[in-house]
Amino acid sequence: MHSKIFITFNLLWFSLLLNGQQNQYVPNLCSHSQIQKPRKIFSSQLASNAHIARMNQYDVKFYFLDIKLERTSTYISGKVTIKALVKATQLDTFSFELHQNLTIDSVKVNGSLCTITRNQGEVNAMLLSGLAGNTIFDAEIWYKGTPPSGASAAIGNGISSANSQTWGNRITWTLSQPYAAYEWFPCKQILADKADSVWVWVTTDTSNKVGSNGLLQKITPISSTKHRYEWRSIYPIAYYLISVTVGQYVEYNIYAKPAGYQDSILIQNYIYNNPNTLPYFKNEIDKTKNLVELFSDLYGLYPFYQEKYGHCMAPFSGGMEHQTMTTQGFFNFTITAHELGHQWFGDWVTCDNWSDIWLNEGFASYSEFLALQYLPNLGNQSASAWMNDVHNNVMSSPDGSVFVMDTADVPRIFDIRLTYDKGAAILHTLRFIINNDSLFFLSLKNYLQQHAFSTATAYSFKSSIENTTGLNLQTFFDQWYYGEGFPTFEVRWFQVGSQLIMKVTQTSSSIVTPLFITPIEYKIKRQSIGDTIIRVEHTQPIENYIFTINGTITNIQVDPNNWLLNQATVIKDQTLANSQLLDQLECLIYPIPGTKSLHIHLNYSEPTQIKIYDTQGKLIYHDLMNQPHKEISISDWPNGFYVIELQNTKGKTIKKYQKM
């Protein structure tokens, strides 16, 4: 059971439009046990491989939606123009997706009427004459109808219309992730093909406002009862991030001023036109400014700064990170942080396929933690409590990978425990492995810049982080991303004089990942003189350690800062105080990685030659060790890997060491 007051991920499923009945906002009642899981969809309900191949014969450049909508109905009519570039040698058929509930009046390509065939959501428009490769063309689709309700092709519906039970306002809104954009407009539902820009024009009753992507260019009068909202965005956008909300709103605007940016960024909010709604949420909405400024510092300047960020309210219990204007059912600190975090992770850089949804959801979830860590006075709980809740939820079941094997299984794509919580938890672990916050956030910035306004895979993320840090992260991804389960540590310890002896045994909750090779911290609790933390590498099922520790040890805490998903037991064991175990111990080198000094500890007193080489094989340190323990200053050493060679009458020991 996750004890968060509100579930803070992009698609909250409980109370999500069941026969028009929603709970828009229910204070202090929301928990993971109340989430209604989305229905599983099967591969036959996705576009076929043949249809995907036909759609991949062109590259979408521009969407222009010119539609009619009202707040009281999901009925939609209008025209969608798709500008595209032919990628094939020749294009004879223009293929796209549109739900079979919607009637197509006509399709024209470059002004010529096409003959169409339909197979459920798959539409093929035969061209009168083929288009040569590298040709730009315009396709216009006139359509109308009532989109499906309770469709199994997505979480909820692509478009919904309902009343807020709390505030009494009627709203029509879209929510297309992952496969439901085609339920309300003709499109190509392939993540890797972002449109370069989008226009969204909506004609509606003059009592309504319309929220969408980009900047509102103008409101054009159509008649005495109708007007048209004309939104335009110049930024590349994935199909599922195009959105519309229609309702009676009041507009509440604030501005963020990120450090180093000479201008301000508009935060445009469409709030229910109810005299009580804005006063109720105003304080939480105002915190968006602080979050934009924080994430601009941590991740790089808000990527859509030339347009805006903002929110449109809609009656569902959660949020959806529509580009530049999140659709949100209510406001609290972590849900606002999550959806804003998506503007970098999910919108600016989008997962290339739903298997790697971690690149969207894990990072947005971790943005909640960072918001609580860096803005503790604004949050709804402490960062440590948040991470503890996440760990408890992940470890409530013994297995499961963050990587999604079956992308036809929508509940699995958006699994809270694995995609959101474990996704955030392993990012925290990656931060621990890098062990340098400046380098960690520089890595994230570099990744975002390298894939800006495009898509990425987990592999490309891995390569980017490795290039910045110099680390090899194959083990991390094999264990935490593709692997399953979590480790359990049994720590047995005893103190003999100034020596702390520890025997640590690791077991795993899953046979998929039987051993987690990982750094780990132990907090040594001492009487009177205070605690100290030791960081070591755990590379074997059983690890034996000996440390020289001043003071009287009272207990040991495993992973005190919750860097790792793990469970642990700690036992004070007097049987460790015997020479047989001490004789089994090799040298101990710590901390790994180091920053200011490295420690070498031997379990015997014998003169030992120490030689340390850099990665080019150059000898940079040479000394004779006459005592069991030696400390070497490394403050002036360049960051990177080193080889430590220890030699005496017992033989030669070679160890790899990292300085950061």
How would you sum up this structure, described in words?
This protein is elongated. Strand 32 and strand 33 form a beta hairpin. The protein contains 11 helices and 36 strands. The two termini are 38 Å apart. The strands form 9 sheets. An 8-stranded mixed β-sheet has the order 5-4-8-2-1-11-14-13, with no helix packed on it. It has a 5-stranded mixed β-sheet with strand order 16-17-18-20-19, covered by helices on one side. A 4-stranded antiparallel β-sheet has the order 9-10-15-12, with no helix packed on it. The relative contact order is 0.08. The chain folds into 4 domains: 322 residues, Immunoglobulin-like; 96 residues, Neutral Protease Domain 2 (Neutral Protease, domain 2, Orthogonal Bundle); 101 residues, Immunoglobulin-like, CATH 2.60.40; 75 residues, Immunoglobulin-like (Sandwich). The N terminus is likely disordered. Helix 4 runs antiparallel to helix 5. The chain is α+β, with helices and mostly antiparallel strands and 660 residues long.
Write a compact overview of the structure shown.
The protein is of the alpha+beta class.
Q: How large a portion of the residues is in β-strands, by DSSP E?
A: 35-45%
- What quaternary form is this? single chain
The CATH class of the largest domain turns out to be Mainly Beta
Q: Determine the structural class based on helices, strands and strand pairing.
A: alpha+beta
Mean pLDDT: 89
Indicate the topology.
Elements lengths: L48 H7 L2 E13 L2 E14 L3 E8 L5 E7 L2 E2 L1 E5 L2 E11 L3 E10 L13 E5 L6 E5 L22 E9 L3 E4 L2 E7 L4 E8 L10 E4 L1 E8 L8 E8 L4 H23 L9 E5 L5 E2 L5 E3 L4 H10 L6 E3 L6 H17 L8 H12 L15 H4 L2 H19 L2 H14 L3 E3 L1 H12 L4 H8 L5 E10 L2 E10 L9 E9 L5 E7 L3 E7 L4 E6 L8 E6 L6 H6 L3 E3 L6 E5 L6 E7 L4 E7 L3 E5 L6 E9 L2 E9 L1
Helix pairs in contact: 2-3, 3-4, 4-5, 4-7, 5-7, 8-9
